[in-house]
Amino acid sequence: MFIDRVDAGRRLAERLVALRGEDLVVLGLPRGGVPVAFEIARALDARLDVIVVRKLGVPRQPELAMGALGEGGVRIVNDDIVHKGHIRPDQMAEVQEREQAELQERDRRFRAGRSRVPLTGRTALIVDDGVATGSTARAACRVARAQGAKRVVLAVPVGDSGVIESLRRDADEVICLEEPSLFYAVGEWYENFEQVADEVVVGLLDQAPVPPLSRPDPDPDPDRHPDRMRLN
Q1: Hey, how many other C-beta atoms are within 10 angstroms of the C-beta on 76?
Q2: Residue partners of 25: CB distance under 8 A and separation at least 6
Q3: CA distance 108 to 116
């Protein structure tokens, strides 16, 4: 059990100490991943930013993800859940339209006028407070690659063991402190798992360290530039 997200972030940072000194950007998944990511960025003296991804929830059961959307046109669909849930194309389109609008609004709200920290040629360390279905984490990894990250590392305190294993196909490295085989919900692994307010996310981004960024290596594959790439 973790006490709260701060405790989880500090314990996770101990496993990530080898990344200190890399040309690194820590990317928290709003909202719950940002307090975890803040502790890691502070421990590693790295830049902190958000990576905005929206879950596509099953109609009438929105906590169950049938996919996810990310910045730059990234769209992930869990065909198995769509099939088992008998999700019609019009239902998928309705959920996607709603979540796309919310994604754009959250990007504006969380960054509050700040520019996105460039990822080209850098290591993107994606952080969440836990992984259940993996849809949002998978979309975040693809968003980071679309933005030019040279290396993608996913770090979470806890996640379903089977899902964590599958995510190793999307990230160059996955760090997870607890990988239970019987997994029901991320919140079961925290003593305090209260919701994180938008204001808290913005406040943590304002408080985060701002070390100078190294000059990134040239992108060896210019076709990966986010302005020219869409992943479906």
Answers
A1: 25
A2: 46, 47, 48, 49, 117, 119, 122, 123, 124, 125
A3: 11
Euclidean distance between CA atoms 46 and 26, whole angstroms: 7
The residues that bridge with 69 in the sheet, in sequence order, are: 54, 75
Q: Which residues are CB-neighbours of 198 under 8 A, at least 6 positions away? A: 30, 31, 106, 109, 110
- What CA dihedral angle connects 84, 185, 25 and 71, to 10 degrees? 30
From the centroid of its chain, how far is CA 188? 20
Question: How far apart, in whole angstroms, are the C-alpha atoms of residue 52 and residue 107?
Answer: 6
94 contacts: CB under 8 Å, gap ≥ 6: 59
Phi-psi region of 206 (alpha: psi -120 to 50; beta: other; left: phi over 0): alpha
In the structure, what pLDDT confidence band is assigned to residue 217 with cuts at 50, 70 and 90?
Answer: low
Judge whether 45 and 23 are in contact, CB under 8 Å. Answer: no
> Tell me, what's the pLDDT at 69?
87
